[in-house]
Amino acid sequence: MIIEEYDQSLFIGRFEDYKRVETLENPNGNFSYKGLRFLFDYLDDTHDEENPYKLDVISLCCDFSEYKNVEEYLKDYDSQHTTIKDITGKEKIADLNEEELNELKSFIENEINDKTTLIKFDNDLDEGFIIAQY
Question: Domain segments of the chain: what residues?
């Protein structure tokens, strides 16, 4: 067996090889470059020499999903779980004031953390995030 170590650049390159990076030419890619940097850091932090990770690009694309913001996430999971109306009493995110929006984001973040792995890009979910599919 041959083992190859990956740095962040090689990791991203493997996703480029499989056309799994979202670009202008490939808007349906699975991950943005920013998302791949955070995914690499997550995998690097959760694996070590005693528990190595074998890179499988297709498996990662099936196991993880990137979302640009809460609204995009809710399009996939809202109907299966709690709805915006259940949390805030309003039908759409656009109808929420700042306090209600922050309450929604906090609720969603807690819900995701309770169900699966959450990889946040910044402090605000509207800056993008990755979840392990559930």
Answer: 1-67, 68-120
